[in-house]
Design goal:
By secondary structure, the chain is α/β, with parallel strands linked by helices. It is built from 7 helices and 9 strands. This is NAD(P)-binding domain-containing protein.
């Protein structure tokens, strides 16, 4: 499988794709950018956020600052970027329910719609393990609404990743460690593993269905192909 993914990466790189990453300062986004910097499979990567960071990511990377409340003023940021990764979002414990909806659903769907209009063909989104429109948890209902909103945009390809807990630098709390040891692919995924899975999926040819959903165990399997 490693040989297959290497061939897919070579083929993908030769096609000269360009990408954008939203939410590149968070745990998943930072890990993704780190892997993209190593692999250099895109001729251009635009990092989109509410503020620029002082880090130098490499010559193919470009940071763009946007106001998500005024996205129509920033349409050109997405122009001719055919692959999109969205890692942005706020934790439910950190914001009000109204802000959770605005940041995790409205900003993302509005950005995705503009991205498609500007040429995005493949959009990858991180939602959550347990995403369900009938969930008794507000956050999981909103994640399901987000997925539905993105499906309605009708990208040529939509990849939905539903991870459990993403572990920064692969580190888990003392409480979680024995659980992870017993069930390594059920309740968590290291950030590097998650980033590799997203990239491996992006370089693969599209499957029969334009909408792909990857649960936590699937994410681990995708990453092993590298």
């Amino acid at each position: 499988m490693a040989e297959n993914i290497s061939a897919d990466m070579d083929r993908f790189k030769a096609l000269g794709h360009s990408a954008f990453v939203m939410g590149y300062s968070g745990v998943a986004g930072a890990a993704l950018v780190k892997e993209l910097s190593k692999l250099k499979i895109f001729k251009k990567v635009v990092l989109i956020g509410r503020r620029a960071l002082s880090q130098d990511y490499g010559p193919e990377f470009e940071q763009k600052v946007v106001d998500y409340e005024k996205l129509d003023d920033h349409k050109d940021v997405f122009k001719d970027l055919d692959v999109g990764f969205c890692c942005m979002g706020a934790h439910s414990k950190d914001v009000s329910k109204e802000d959770y909806v605005r940041i995790n659903k409205d900003y993302v769907v509005n950005s995705a719609q503009i991205a498609k209009e500007q040429g995005c063909k493949h959009f990858t989104i991180i939602t959550s393990k347990g995403s369900n429109k009938s969930s008794f948890l507000h956050a999981l209902r909103i994640k399901a609404e987000l997925e539905a909103g993105l499906e309605a945009i009708n990208f040529e390809r939509l990849s939905i990743f539903r991870p459990a807990k993403i572990l920064q630098d692969g580190k888990a709390s003392m409480i979680l460690k024995p659980v992870i040891y017993a069930f390594p692919t059920a309740l968590s995924v290291p950030d590097e593993t998650f980033a590799k899975a997203m990239i491996n999926n992006a370089v693969r040819p599209i499957k029969s269905s334009p909408v792909e959903i990857y649960e936590n165990k699937d994410i681990h399997k995708l990453a092993k192909d590298s």
